[in-house]
């Protein structure tokens, strides 16, 4: 990413998400000017995405759904596995990000992965035609105002014994200056951190893998943001 493009991206981030309008309208307003450079800019911030994909036990013939899939960047982490899935659905509310995803999916289809479907839809109510073997959220749950409803919806679409994966920012279960800072810093850009994600996930699913970590943040030297990776099985 060029210096000019990066400066432009920072300017949009500093402006933040507007408060008026529907959730879909706010997403489009915020991300449309950033869509072309979204992936390059956030590669240094969104940690653990590749690891989540590699740990998901979705094999040949699986039906997979990514809720809040944005630009479809995670498709590339799947490599040769992608073409072997029965279906792969990427669901997102933001048309600007889905346009980037469409170009990516067209390229992947030329390489043999023609099983990907893009859906402009809401993670809180979209349902695929058949039960999914694997559903995941990659830095999406914290962006959904009613994240509990999105989680409920994901569990409804998942077959018994199916896998749910989540990688996202969060707040460790303690209070203090650090948590207050991260809550305010992310909220400016429409990301709502919570200390409730992991307890709810552990209660609703049979945990297969769970880890909490911290990682550096671009332009904030010395600070490390908390994030988690969770994989669970539907009981």
Structure description:
The structure is a single chain. With 235 residues, this protein is an alpha/beta fold. It has a single domain, classed as Vaccinia Virus protein VP39 (Rossmann fold). 37% of the residues lie in helices and 24% in strands. The chain is built from 10 helices and 7 strands. It has helices at residues 3-15, 23-31, 38-42, 49-55, 75-78, 81-84, 95-110, 147-157, 177-187, 197-204, and strands spanning 63-67, 87-92, 116-120, 132-138, 158-169, 206-216, 224-233. It has a 7-stranded mixed β-sheet with strand order 3-2-1-4-5-7-6, sandwiched between helices.
CATH homologous superfamily annotation: Vaccinia Virus protein VP39
β-strand percent reads: 15-25%
CATH class type: Alpha Beta
* Regions with little confidence, pLDDT below 50 for 5+ residues: none
| Major beta sheet summary | 7 strands, mixed
Task: Walk across the major sheet and give the strand order.
Answer: 3-2-1-4-5-7-6
The mean pLDDT is: 91
Number of domains: 1
Q: Can you write the helix and strand succession as a string?
A: HHHHEHHEHEEHEHHEE
Q: What is the tally of beta strands?
A: 7
- Helix count equals 10
Radius of gyration, in angstroms, nearest whole number: 17 Å
CATH architecture: 3-Layer(aba) Sandwich
Task: Summarize this structure briefly.
The chain has 235 residues and is an alpha/beta fold. The chain has helices spanning 3-15, 23-31, 38-42, 49-55, 75-78, 81-84, 95-110, 147-157, 177-187, 197-204; strands spanning 63-67, 87-92, 116-120, 132-138, 158-169, 206-216, 224-233.
